[in-house]
Amino acid sequence: MRQHVNPLSRVHQQPRPLPPPTELFAQPDQPIVLDIGCARGRFLLDLAPLQSDHNHLGVEIRRPLVEAAEAERIGLGLTNLHFLFCNANVSLEDWLAALPSGLLRRVSIQFPDPWFKVRHHKRRVLQPPLLRAIAAALQPGAELFLQSDVEAVIAPMVALSEASGCFERPAEDSRPWRASNPLPVPTERERLVLTQGLPVFRVLYRRNHTAVPSLETLEQAAGAAGAEGGAP
Prior knowledge:
It is built from 8 helices and 7 strands. The chain is α/β, with parallel strands linked by helices.
């Protein structure tokens, strides 16, 4: 069951200053991979020991899940992993902007809350300001990985990413969806969906050399892509 939290509620619209890498990791100069909407954090708890040469950060809007994930991380002694409670669309942009150039190597958004009703689409996680902040923080060659089990949810994410002009799919990837997960471990949701024999819709992007567009330009492009159906 997805336990929804309204990101537009008053409490979640309060900005939260996020600690810099020097306060989060034992070796803060290691490249960072960021998982937005990490839920209980089990994906990163499995990934961090496998990729000890990277730092891993999970951000999540549901505080009890973050507290549980952090307690487990501490118990395991993982110093290249941290979990933070925040609304990504309120607090993450400034944190991304303050990162040293080239430190962020991958951003993933996996199985986000779908918010099916049209009037609730503004609650979805990948909004133009956040996409713009991600594009600005990623250097050419760094990755953005998106996946969902709901095609109607990931299609607008794809449309927004491609409307920015900042991302390209690897030439070898099939369209419209990547056949396999490029990461070494799946999320809990992915395991459940695949066990049920249901499809997972995935796209891997790499940052190109295109300059980050203005927010106004990106919002206009995203609106045009949505009007055309948002097809990947």
